[in-house]
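Pipeline run #58 for the internal structure catalog. This entry was flagged by the ingest filter as a single-chain record with no existing model, so it goes straight to prediction. Upstream metadata was stripped on purpose; only the residue string is passed forward. Reviewer on rotation: M.T. Logging verbosity set to normal.
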Amino acid sequence: MLVISRKVSESIIIGDYIEIIVSEISGDRVKVCINAPKEVPIVRKELLETRALNEEASVVPQKQALEQLKKLLK
């Protein structure tokens, strides 16, 4: 992992086409702007983790899920 310090309005370049700009620093939050080609997906990590958990949960066989629900409702 590379760690780089930046001030407001400073940026870093990733590859040839992606630029990350520090837009604002306020307390423990940092706002960043990302310039990238439209075909490059940009997704927050926590959304990917939530999607993975949802996909995993949806794999539970329906019969097993119904039995678990019955137990919870009793």
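catalog note: The longest strand covers residues 18-26.
catalog note: The mean pLDDT is 89.
status: ready for reviewer M.T.
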